[in-house]
Design goal:
The structure holds 2 protein chains of 2 kinds. By secondary structure, chain A is of the alpha+beta class. Chain A has 4 helices and 11 strands; from the N terminus they run H-H-E-H-H-E-E-E-E-E-E-E-E-E-E. In chain A, the strands form 2 sheets. Chain A has a 9-stranded mixed β-barrel with strand order 1-2-3-4-5-6-7-8-9. In chain A, strands 10-11 form a two-stranded antiparallel sheet. The termini of chain A are far apart. The relative contact order of chain A is 0.16. Chain B has a 5-stranded mixed beta barrel with strand order 1-2-3-5-4. Chain B has a single domain (about 5-20, about 30-135), classed as OB fold (Dihydrolipoamide Acetyltransferase, E2P). Chain B is α+β, with helices and mostly antiparallel strands. Classes of the chains: A alpha+beta, B alpha+beta. The interface between A and B is large, with 43 and 41 residues.
Chain lengths: ~270, ~140
């Protein structure tokens, strides 16, 4: 049961034992048997999972339209953010257009990282490493750290906008509930420029709905950009081949990247 | 091989294109996604590299001289999922490619589909276009 969890158990406990002070044992004193029992309560999400359908945030999971900006519903923006969104739709459409004055390049291209909330629905390989205190969601080269040890968020003056924000979680039965805040603004939510403010909060409810299907219901609340919460569902499907390899992450910016950003535009490098 | 015999293969690749999420870290807006263009030539080099693969092709131009075309594909891992391998294409292979051309008229395009001289049909468009457009013009 829970090969991954037991593997981590073996790795983490000796390491922690070397650093924890006698006054503050961490994790809480627990026998191996108790520990195994605790882990056994958690769902078994081992294996490689892939987004079912498109990498657009919405439930349009046909997979074909993702590169067409605006070809889907969009968040319930307030007037100011709706206007910004409409402008950005046009700017995004021309991000590789040398004749367009003010293009907007995809943040995934700029950072070579999806960030949140886009990482909820990328076309990359997902792994869920579940332990009682923490869940890691590894999406190839990006890793989400979700603390389920009961901690709260850091104080306000220790927060700043980052690609993945800060995530804490808890279990409601077999459903993992994740709260994420402090995500950098300006990140594209998907291949159209859906954006949120740094005040946005992302609430995910991840549960297994079939032996090889995970459902993630995401609700975005953003008092700066939205008039009401925005909820949608994405799915992940487990690869049937237990010996499948996680593929090499899609890197960018190296000498073999023939789509450099020049003067704020994506370009195509052709042989001279 | 006739077009009728190819249809199941095309459907197979077409289905893959539709149902499999696309792996790409950048927009393809430099290409005219409303247009498709077919070119025939030989493979000069198949660049199986991250972040995106490229087919370098030698094509006979209108003036009778050879021109080099660059066809952008998706990531190696994405192509692998669609049945491509690093050596699927070799220098000298005759190939017909359907692509979305660059907007600026340079010799480049975004791969839609391809067909080798032996009739093998290749899907795997980075933008999710289905393969049936690969039917070569007689």
């Amino acid at each position: 049961m829970k090969t991954t969890c037991l593997f981590l158990l073996g790795l983490t406990i000796p390491a922690l034992a070397q650093t924890a002070s006698p006054q503050t044992p961490f994790p809480a004193t627990m026998s191996s048997a108790e520990r195994v029992k605790e882990i056994a309560q958690l769902p078994d999400w081992k294996g490689i999972w892939r987004t079912s359908g498109s990498s657009a945030l919405l439930e349009a999971e046909s997979g074909v339209q993702m590169f067409k900006p605006g070809n889907r519903d969009h968040p319930p923006y307030n007037t100011e953010w709706e206007a910004k969104y409409q402008t950005n739709l046009v700017r995004a459409e021309h991000q590789g257009d040398a004749s367009f004055a003010n293009p907007l390049v995809d943040s995934h291209t700029l950072y070579c990282a999806a960030g949140m909330p886009r990482l909820v629905a990328t076309p990359f390989d997902y792994e869920f490493i579940v332990t009682p205190e923490k869940v890691w969601i590894v999406v190839e080269k990006e890793t989400r750290h979700i603390y389920t040890d009961g901690r709260g968020f850091p104080p306000e003056d220790e927060l700043w906008g980052t690609l993945l924000g800060r995530s804490i979680g808890h279990w409601e039965g077999q459903t993992l509930v994740i709260e994420t805040i402090s995500v950098k603004t300006g990140l594209w939510g998907d291949t159209t420029p859906v954006m949120f403010s740094e005040k946005a909060r992302y609430t995910e409810r991840i549960r297994q709905t079939a032996p090889d299907v995970l459902e993630n219901q995401l609700t975005v609340t953003d008092p700066v950009a939205l008039t009401k919460p925005w909820t949608f569902v994405k799915h992940y499907r487990r690869m049937r081949d237990p010996k499948a390899w996680v593929e090499e992450p899609e890197t960018c910016g190296g000498p073999e990247d023939r789509n450099p950003i020049v003067d704020g535009r994506i370009t195509v490098k052709l042989p001279k | 091989m006739t077009w009728g015999k190819l249809s199941p293969l095309l459907l197979f690749f077409g289905a893959l294109c539709v149902s499999t999420p696309i792996r790409a870290h950048h927009s393809f807006s430099g290409f005219d996604m409303q247009k498709s263009m077919t070119i025939k030539g030989t493979v000069k080099e198949f660049q199986w590299v991250n972040p995106h693969c490229w087919i370098q092709m030698t094509v006979m131009g209108a003036s009778g001289s050879n021109e080099e075309w660059s066809i952008e594909m998706s990531a190696p891992s994405s192509l692998l999922r669609r049945g491509w391998k690093p050596k699927t294409l070799k220098p000298g292979d005759n190939i017909t490619i359907v692509m979305h051309p660059l907007r600026d008229g340079q010799r480049g395009g975004s791969f839609i589909s391809g067909q080798l001289a032996d009739g093998t049909v290749l899907g795997g468009s980075p933008t999710g276009d289905a393969a049936p457009e690969a039917k070569p013009k007689d």
